[in-house]
Write a structure and sequence with these properties.
- The chain has about 450 residues and is an alpha/beta fold.
- It has 15 helices and 15 strands.
- The strands form two sheets. It has a ten-stranded mixed sheet with strand order 11-10-9-8-7-6-12-13-14-15. A five-stranded antiparallel sheet has the order 4-3-2-1-5, sandwiched between helices.
- The radius of gyration is 23 Å and the shape is globular.
- One iron/sulfur cluster binds next to helix 13 and helix 15.
Amino acid sequence: MLDLGRYKNLTAFNAAVFTAGGPDTFIGFQSDTLEVAHLTRDVFESLAKVSLKSVLEPQTLLSTAVRENIQELNEWSQQSTLAPLEKKAKTSFKAKSLNINVTQICNLKCTYCAAGGDGTYGDPVKRIEVEKTLPQLKYFLAKLDEGERFHISFLGGEPLLFPSGVRAICEYVSGQANEKGFVPSYKITTNGTIMNDEIMDLLTTYKPTMVISMDGKPEIIDRFRPQKNNKPTSRAIEKTLETLNERRLEIGPLAVHAVFTAQHTAVRETYEYFRAFNFDWIDFIYSVSDENEEANAQYMNEVAKTAERAWLLGGEQELRKIYLFDNYFDRLDSQERLENHCGLGKSFAVIDSRNQIFNCPWTVGQAENRLGQGQWMDEAKLADYDETVIERNRCQPCWAKYMCGGGCSFVHQTTSKSDTLKKSLQFCERTRFLTALSIYYYAKARVESDL
Ligand code: SF4
Ligand code: SF4
């Protein structure tokens, strides 16, 4: 259990829990400036103890015996090298990142599939009609300014069942980018079981990031991500990875995305298996729908063990191959406060096989989360997203808010059932633990300790 203390906007913890037999190490974090510092035991012990699940913000120190700390802590608490966040004007939707479900059909039947267990989201329309998607893209691209980034993520179903559709979209967007001067990037999230010359040509031409969905060692893959006829898939995925590694210099980045659940929390073992494939980055996430106290604790512990191993293997460089740490290191370096966990209703949308526009990959097909159709956006619906995600999810008292950005609204809604404003406590506990873990390694990498 993480020993955590708070005083106003300062949070501190004892990082001993993050390493096996590690010494007491006290790290402080200022939530508004995102500054990190080493603290003495004396200062740490003057803070009121809070739990990882709590958002209490104590305004006093614990005892008068440590009152001399108060001036130092007050100074740090009030310090701000950053301009205050400005209240933003009402947002009008501007897509900077689109997910396109080029297919809604899949050759696997993963046990936790976001798309209804068969890639279809329950929709009989199996793939996009490119001739309808290009005018829709034109509408979004027209809003981009020169130099602006624009990202397309191809999803499914399995997007590589329709490589010519992916290619047509890349060709169109890259052509528009040359004309208008915006900067496109592409990502394909695939189950990794399909590879052929047509796909390889797509990868060497447009160099999308290839993200392989793969949750662990072969026995885990075969258990949770089988073919429709229940046959194993791990060998086909390994073969694809061999092929991709042979052509590594000609293609874009190669990454892996692993989902953990109550049935599978072996993060460290998964990390060891992944190392053989030399991925550019590794993304570990915990299932958006799972609520299991014990598994949540195991997952946090496993990520801490994995971070320790990565650090021993290659310090910051190796640790930052894990997306979570890379992302948090960037945020702490830039001290840029994150107000929106994702672009929900603001800068991100999902286009389904009927060219309907949804707010999140997990809500495709739900009428209440539909933001538009074709080149029409539902302005009344978009007005619901004026607040930042932090405001929307009532995250103001949370010490990790500017690292987390208010969390995944879908997780909060799914796990708290009817009350959409009630947050998932397990998500919050996990996020705060992983934030503290990242802060600890950031302190190790960046902050000199003269204590
Ligand atoms: S969702 Fe994120 S920002 Fe909001 S309370 Fe939970 S951890 Fe904090
Ligand atoms: S709400 Fe959650 S799942 Fe949906 S887009 Fe945002 S981060 Fe992703």
